[in-house]
Amino acid sequence: MKPRSQSHLQPWDLYNKSRSRVSRMVFVVLVLIASMEVIESQFLVKTLPGFDGDLPFTLETGYIGVGESDEVQLFYYFIESEGNPNEDPLMLWLTGGPGCSGLSGLLYEIGPLTIDYANSTLEKARLEINPYSWTKAASIIFLDQPAGSGFSYAKTSEAYITNDTLSTIHTYNFLTKWLVDHPKFISTPLYLGADSYAGLVAPMIVQEIYNGNKVGEGPHINIKGYVLGNPLTDTSADYNSRIPYAHNMALLSDEIYKVIKCVSYEYLSIILRFKFI
C-alpha cells in the first residue's frame, strides 16, 4: 500500500468538533465516578453516572500498545453482545474525522446507551437504553484511532505523526493483540464497520487482515466482511459530486448550476463545504 499524503487528512467540521467536545466531557465524568473492577490492563465498568442501577450489559475499556516499542497507546470500549456472545459476530467499529472518538459511535450511533435529552441538563446528563443498539446482535469494539483521537495517545511527539497507511497498520496490530488478550473471540466471525473518513482506511485494514492471514502473522482472523456508512471513498469524486447533488436537491437553481458547470468543481465544492457547515 502506498502511504497517503498528510493532505488527505481532512479537518473536522464544526459538527464533529462539538460532538467530540461533548463526548470528552461526558466520558471524563463517567471514568472519574464509575465503579470499575481492574482486570490486568482492562477495566470492567459496572455502573455509570446518569444511569440508574448496574449496566445491563458488559462494558470493558482499556489500552493496547502498538507501533515501535508500543509508543502508540490505543484506547477502546468493548461491549459484549447482549444476545449470545458465544455465537454472535464480533465487530470493530471505526469513526471518522480523522480524529473522532469511538465514544461518538457508542453514544450517538449504534451503542447500547444514548443521551436522554428530555431529562438531561448542561450540569447533569442522563443516559438511557438505545433500543436499536447493534450490540443486541453483535459484540462491538469501539476504537479511538489514530493516536490523539479520544483517549488514545502517543508517548512521543513523533508518534503522533501519521497517515492512512500507518493508521491501518496500527489498527491491524491492535486487533491482533486484542484477540490474543480475548482468545474466546479468535474464531468468532469478524466484521469491520466504519463511517465518514474511516471509509478510506477500512478497506485497507481488511486487506491487511487478509495479508496477515495468508502469511500466518498472528492469530488467524475470521474476517467475514465490512460495512461502510456515509463513507468517504475518494476525495476528488466525493467533493466534486456535491455540486450536482446540491442541484438535484434544489439547493442550487438551474441558472446557478449552468454557471457553476463552467468553473472548476474542485474549487466550488470547497466553497459549498464551508457554506453549508
Q: What does the model show?
A:
The chain has eight helices and eleven strands. By secondary structure, it is α/β, with parallel strands linked by helices. The chain has helices at residues 14-33, 102-110, 164-181, 198-215, 235-240, 242-248, 254-260, 265-275; strands spanning 36-39, 42-45, 59-66, 72-79, 90-94, 113-115, 127-129, 139-143, 153-154, 190-196, 223-231. Helix 3 packs across helix 4. The strands form two sheets. Strands 1, 2, 3, 4, 5, 8, 9, 10 and 11 form a nine-stranded mixed sheet that branches. It has two domains: 6-233, Alpha/Beta hydrolase fold, catalytic domain (Rossmann fold, 3-Layer(aba) Sandwich), CATH 3.40.50.1820; 234-277, no CATH class. A hairpin with a 2-residue loop joins strand 1 and strand 2. The two termini are 33 Å apart.
Short description:
Keywords: Membrane, Transmembrane, Transmembrane helix. The chain is α/β, with parallel strands linked by helices and 277 residues long.
Provide keyphrases for this structure.
alpha/beta; serine-type carboxypeptidase activity; Rossmann fold; 2 domains; disordered N terminus; 8 helices; two-stranded antiparallel ribbon; 277 residues; single chain
